[in-house]
Amino acid sequence: MSVKPQTAQVSAPCWSCQAEVHGGHFCPSCGRILPLAEGASYFAFFELPSRLLLDESALEQKFLQLSWKLHPDNFVRADEFERGLSLDRASQLNDAYRTLCEPITRVEYLLAHEGARKTGGAKQQAPPELLEEVFELNESLDELRTARAENDQTAELRQRLVAAQSNFQENLNEVDAELKQAAAEWDELLETDAATGSDAGAMSREALMKRMNEILNRRSYIRNLVNIVQNELAQD
């Protein structure tokens, strides 16, 4: 798997005037809206490199600008083909923004786009450092459900679950910090290769994507534990 530091723009003729274009939303010669290049990423949609620590306010401004330019109301007098392009592009814009405006979904998308997102399967294994806590959580859940069914006192059991929830949330915060650090390392590799005009960091990026994939799987497991406890506590 070869990973490019930035999404390459493929040159192609404009569908309307046949002028050569290199990406972008509109033909620089005739101003017609262009089809999105096959395989183009959401980062390319916003004319951004594949960075993971984005300026979210700048991304929002770009989104608002494109929302206005690509709005179907601007193409009511265009032919059917161009109106269809506008509708597709407006939908793609919303999907791209929702994905890139959140740090976690941004990393998930990057890995998926590069073919590097591998989930833990239908039944994920508990991270080794949490095995004991997960075992204790399952015991507490079983005891609480039994006590609730028998109308016994559940206050002490609920306190244990609240403590477990707090602990898992702390674990989740630590994982998020780890993922943010990995994202910073990704961006640094991109900047280095962009400055040198090389792809020397390809192997490092592949290793980093594997690491980020593992972090995301661990995060998904811990997030699920937090949700389980929250749902159980909401029963009373």
Description of the structure:
This protein is mostly helical and 236 residues long. The chain has helices at 42-45, 56-70, 80-100, 103-113, 131-149, 155-196, 202-233; strands at residues 11-13, 20-22. It has two domains: 11-101, Helix Hairpins, CATH 1.10.287.110; 128-233. It contains seven helices and two strands, in the order ββααααααα. A hairpin with a 6-residue loop joins strand 1 (11-13) and strand 2 (20-22). Helix 2 (56-70) packs antiparallel against helix 3 and helix 4 crosses helix 7 (202-233).
Summarize the structure.
The chain is mostly helical and 236 residues long. The protein is built from 7 helices and 2 strands, in the order E-E-H-H-H-H-H-H-H.
- Tell the overall outline: elongated
Which segments are poorly predicted (pLDDT under 50) over 5 or more consecutive residues?
1-8
Give me the number of helical elements.
Answer: 7
Main beta sheet: strand number and arrangement?
2 strands, antiparallel
What order do the strands of the largest sheet run in, or round the barrel if closed? 1-2
| Number of extended strands | 2
Percentage beta strand: under 5%
Radius of gyration: 24 Å
Order of helices and strands: EEHHHHHHH
Report how far apart the termini are: 50 Å
